[in-house]
Amino acid sequence: MGSKQIAQETFDEAVQENMVEFEMEPEEAVREAVLQFESQGVDLSNIVKAVRQPASENGQRQKHQILLTLDSLGRAVADSALSELPEQLGSFAAQCKEQLAFRYLAGQNGAYPVVFSACQLASGDRDLMLKAFSTLSALLDGQPDLLDAAGQELLLRSLRERREDAEMTLAGIRCVRNACLKHEQNRQDFVKGGILPLLTGAIVQHGDSADVVRTAALALRIMTFDDDIRVPFGHAHDHAKMIVLENDGLRVLIEAAKAFTANSGVLSELCATLSRLSVRNEFCQEIVDLGGLNFMVTLLADCIDHPDVVKQVLGAIRAVAGNDDVKDAIVDAGGTDLIVLAISHHLANPQICEQGCAALCMLALRKPEHCSVIMEGGGALAALQAMKAHPREVAVQKQACMLIRNLVSRSRDFSQPILEMGAENLITEARAAHRDCDDVAKAALRDLGCKVELRELWTGQKGSLAQ
Predict the structure, then answer these.
(1) Cα–Cα distance between 118 and 99 in angstroms, integer?
(2) CA distance linking residue 162 with residue 198, whole number of Å
(3) Helix ranges restricted to H, 82-183
(4) Which of 355, 408, 409, 362 is nearest to 382 (CA)?
(5) Distance of CA 270 to the CA centre of its chain
(6) For residue 139, what pLDDT is reported?
(7) Contact 106, 139 (CB under 8 A)
(8) If pLDDT is split at 50, 70 and 90, which confidence band does 57 have?
(9) Which residues pair with 4 in a beta bridge?
(10) Helix, strand, coil: what percent of the chain each, to 5?
């Protein structure tokens, strides 16, 4: 994707020029403008790639359809036309959901104050408020900067006052989710405003609603993200601890899973959130004590054909295996065989291969007895097959190298069998192809007993060879 940016007006002028100066048809003019800017390395992801529509009022400049729809919504809000609002909100939300470029252009042209005002107008009408929140959620998707303090307070108040209403709760949480993704300040503000007990409370209150449980679990997980590149240090770890220690988050999530034993989508979401909360040794143990490990292992076995679920469960097992006692519980539950099966079954999926190798790597760390179980179950061979299947995926190569090293670092008897599987060539190739693999590949080769050649870099000056 290109790194250069242009304004919507610049793109629109190029389209108009193609139509006027070169007599192109509208669709051809747009295609030509796209090719022109993309050839210059311009990122057009936020640009509406269409011809502006004639405005309804005489003398008014042409506008894109999303802005014409916004104008109609704005007039309905300004006139407090409650009878018109449902249709106007629905039309605007539908266009926002079509693509980021539409809602970005709307956001740049004052859409947030209009939608926020619509939410305020709808406060006494439940059905209208559902539409207003749905529209707000659509507008915030991908542009959380739009939300202000008044919007945050509106959402928190709604979640508090309407906590018994599953649909309203879901609509509010969706807005919070979109407002907090890739936005650290919004996360911190919502946590200070009391969002965490509202999210865990929603899971308990509406434990029979798959949509509420899944969305609330995702929102909790987003509170533990560190994905805002504008902020050097976030509060992800602190938020995770607050969810567990102050809001009984682990118990809430694991109890919720019991109502959805046949719903892989909900269970996958719960697993992903549990993995984000496994930030302390005692938290990992608590997940096991509460029965979380049993449902993960069962889910992995039952949903082995569903790659999205498998990936999330492997990530959760990898996370809780940071505790040495939990490692034993995973192995005792037959987890190693299921992990190897998952890798082999989804060998074409690099993310599953990465997570599977990483989970086995954690189980093997400081546990020679586990290394024997992994070897007997075909773990080393599965890792090498993953390396062979994904030579360009640095994450797969790195985790597989680390697994091989952990298998042989305290169990040298495994070195020869692993070498006979072709490990040396695969690890050497990984080291040569990926700079990030150099250290772990070198360590794996050394522990396998291979001769490791130091990589040298010629700087162009006599006597200036550097490793």
Answers:
(1) 22
(2) 11
(3) 85-98, 100-108, 111-121, 126-140, 149-161, 166-180
(4) 355
(5) 14
(6) 98
(7) yes
(8) low
(9) 42
(10) 70, 0, 25
Task: Read off the tokens for 440.
Answer: 């772990």
* H or E element, residue 465: strand 465-466
- Give the span between the Cα atoms of 369 and 382, in whole angstroms: 19
What is the Cα–Cα distance from 264 to 300, expressed in whole angstroms? 10
Sign of CA dihedral 322, 328, 331, 334: negative
Mind listing the pLDDT tens digit for each residue in 165-175?
Answer: 999 999 999 99
**pTM for this entry:** 0.90
The neighbour count for residue 166, using CB atoms within 10 Å, is: 16
Residue with tokens 């989508």: 265
Residues 6 or more apart from 93 whose CB is under 8 A from it?
131, 134, 135, 138, 139
207: helix, strand or coil: coil
The two three-digit tokens of residue 413, written as one number? 């008897």
Q: Which residues contact 70 (CB under 8 A, 6 or more apart)?
A: 92, 106, 109, 110, 111, 114
Amino acid identity for residue 459 in this structure: T
